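User: Hi! I'm working on a homework problem where we have to compare a predicted structure to a textbook description. Could you give me the structure for the chain below?
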Amino acid sequence: MPVPWEALIPFGLLTACFGATGTLFNIAKRATNDGKPPRYNLDSWDHMMMARDERLTGSWRGQSSEPIAPEAFATNSSWGTEKIW
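Assistant: Happy to help. Predicted structure tokens:
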């Protein structure tokens, strides 16, 4: 039984299109996460630690190994404030 060689061209095009789309989507996801793979199944603790890391480093995925927090960390709380008259 002969092989229909004409079918390989569309198959190759579809494979290349899906491969390029997946690769570009992966690059875009990693670019938004500072070059790290995306996080899944986040709970409230993870969100709290991500907010703390953003306050410390300025990035959701950045982490700091410094034992002393910067000066601005004391005043840039994530809690909302009320205006006192």
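For your comparison, note the following. Helices lie at 8-32, 44-57. The mean pLDDT is 85. Good luck with the assignment!
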